[in-house]
Design a protein that fits this description.
It contains one helix and 13 strands. With about 140 residues, the chain is mainly beta.
Length: about 140
């Protein structure tokens, strides 16, 4: 297991040769996009050398995630990236509208991209309880 906080800021390197025939450094991992309904990471958002430039890669492009870098097979960008909402810092509401704290961090399996556990201000929350993620909050099943 890894935490979002452990991978945020890691260099993202492409296995595709760069200009000088070496691996191409794309930038640093800014955030991970999660599909709350499936509990899967779907995209990586990479900040390039220019602060306003962001590359969005499909999770399937990931070759390996380690403590020092994220290695992707290709630097090809995602065709139509989905809307993005960061999970860390997001308010948590139940489907009935009851507040359940705030997401502090997210534990995930780097090999599969499956979100396993949400670390919240009220303790751990199994990722299987996620229903939806929007601008305002993460909605989870009551229970």
């Amino acid at each position: 297991m890894m935490l979002f906080s452990q991978v945020r800021g890691l260099p993202v390197v492409s296995l595709s040769p760069g200009r000088r025939g070496r691996f191409a450094e794309m930038g640093v991992l800014r955030s991970l996009t999660v599909d709350a309904a499936t509990g899967m990471i779907t995209h990586l958002r990479v900040r390039g050398r220019h602060p306003r430039r962001e590359t969005v890669l499909a999770r399937e492009a990931v070759h390996a995630v380690g403590p020092d870098a994220v290695v992707v097979r290709s630097a090809d960008t995602a065709a139509a990236p989905p809307p993005h909402h960061d999970l860390p810092g997001r308010r948590i509401l139940t489907e009935a509208g009851d507040e359940r704290g705030t997401v502090l961090d997210v534990a995930f399996d780097p090999a599969t991209g499956r979100v396993e556990t949400l670390l919240t201000t009220r303790g751990e929350l199994p990722a299987g309880r996620m229903l939806g993620l929007g601008d305002y909050a993460l909605v989870v099943r009551t229970g």
